[in-house]
Amino acid sequence: MSSLSYNIFVLRCLGLWYSDDWITGWKAKLYIGYTAFIFLTFYSFTLSHFIMLYECIDDANEFANASFMLLTLIAICGKMFNMVSERQAIAKMMTALQTDPFTPEDPTELSINSECIRKTKVNMYYVNIGIIES
Prior knowledge:
This protein is mainly α.
């Protein structure tokens, strides 16, 4: 099992990565609708922060906080768009990284790989707990 499979699972939950097995059929249409809903929600949230930026123009501290939040949201929207539009290129790179020259060859490399997979699992659990708690 690859350490990237956990990241792909999170991206699938967020609507940013669909499987190539779902190219046709009802699952593909449902997932594309889910992705569109996620995009619409997040982009409208970014637009509302842009409108909020105009409302807090009188207070410099609020304006600075709102503008930094808006810049962060714009960057996230760009990353979301890039992730969905370049999914096939990213998948090709991931496949290339899991082929022969990059696979572990001896027991030391296998232990390093299994340790990285374990750390990825633990970090993912901590992030999920942090998201749920906040």
